[in-house]
Amino acid sequence: MKILMLHPHDIFHLSEPWTIRIKSIAKEFKKEGHEVRIAYFPLSHKDIKSSFSDYSGIEVMTLDRRRGLGIFFKNTKRLIKEVEWADIVHFQKCFHYCSIPAVIAAWIKNKPLHYDWDDWEAKIYFYGKPASPIIGLYIWILERALPKFVDSISLSSRRLANLATDNYGISKERITSAPVGANSEEFKPENSGEEIRKEHSINGPIVLYLGQLHGAQYAELLIHAAKIVIQWYPTTMFFIVGGGYRLEELKNLARDFNLSERIIFTGSIPHNQTKKYIAAADVCVGCFAKNDITMCKSPLKLAEYLSSGKAIVASNVGEVRNMVGGVGLLVEPGNHIILAGGINELLSSSELRAKMGTLTRRRALERYNWSWSAENIINMYRKVLKGYELKRL
């Protein structure tokens, strides 16, 4: 099968780490013998190339994300040419400069179109202070309209699936489940965290938060919890691994709580380095507020914690309960005292942490891995392609 995949962001830039989803699914397709090409939009127009290049055995091409009708038509024209090669066209997220050219090109060439819907983008845009309500309205309209123009949809959470079927009127036959996953060969219990411990001269317990530090994230809850945890386990070190526009704000909060020497902020790091930090941790934390954004997510950090066989404390919200329920500790969202209690419970028992590690690894191998999600999407592709073949008869 020939698959052309499109993503509206830069798959190689540290500031857009969520592109790991399309890269990981593409690698799984390639592993199963499919031909794959990825078209993406670099942050800088200086990185735009006129031809395909190779990335881990996958051909990649660049398109222009700058504004303007001329650029929009140029991107669309190029996609129409590339779609000719593909059996199916796959795009992720609803952003107009990627999704609309994909819809137009697939329609002109009569090729099946698949939408990978992984976040409620309109809600994310309006979180906090949106740059422009007009742009937010545009995203809201597109996110509602796009499911009606595609042949199939993969969804990262049950909440998004319910939104698609109950609110947007999409039939269940056109959707499939594709939660985030981890590469189980890369994120595994055998990984060593000694390099991180030696680098920071840490002998005591480590509590880890992994993730982006921007709107709708909740790393500050861990900082509040840390103030309680160190009263019981004073040698505990906390890592907050990730970057984002809230990094300085969170550093200031840690400083206000006199925790600057107990909390290490790494900033943005390459994705292939995160496994070292997870391996070094005794307890991994996934704390989330309860809102429409978090209810729709299947958080990548949790999949990688699970695959690494770690003891997990996570907020009981949305897809998190499906990922962690029965194998980790679920705690009330937004309550730093209860979060601290969960962390303390795990720090108090190495036996409990080891037992949880066995269960979390098993959960990842059963469901929360990229191979499982990629197989679901491929099966949906086959179903759609069969329908196209019948139409042509």
What is the element layout, followed by pairings?
Layout: E1 2-7, H1 20-31, E2 35-40, E3 53-55, E4 58-62, H2 69-83, E5 88-92, H3 96-108, E6 113-117, H4 121-126, H5 133-149, E7 152-155, H6 158-167, E8 175-177, H7 194-200, E9 206-210, H8 219-232, E10 237-241, H9 247-256, E11 263-267, H10 274-280, E12 283-286, H11 292-295, H12 300-307, E13 311-315, H13 320-324, E14 329-331, H14 336-347, H15 350-366, H16 370-392
Parallel strand pairs: 1-2, 1-5, 2-4, 5-6, 6-7, 7-8, 9-10, 9-12, 10-11, 12-13, 13-14
Antiparallel strand pairs: 3-4
Helix pairs in contact: 1-16, 2-3, 7-10, 8-14, 12-15
Can you tell me the number of structural domains?
Answer: 2
Sequence of secondary-structure elements: EHEEEHEHEHHEHEHEHEHEHEHHEHEHHH
Class by SSE composition: alpha/beta
| Low-pLDDT residue spans | none
- Give the CA-CA distance, first to last residue: 20 Å
Q: How many alpha or pi helices?
A: 16
Q: Round the Cα radius of gyration to an integer and report it.
A: 21 Å
* CATH class category name of the largest domain: Alpha Beta
| Largest sheet: number of strands, sense, barrel closure | 8 strands, mixed
The percentage helix is 40-55%
Counting DSSP E segments of at least 2 residues, the number of strands comes to 14
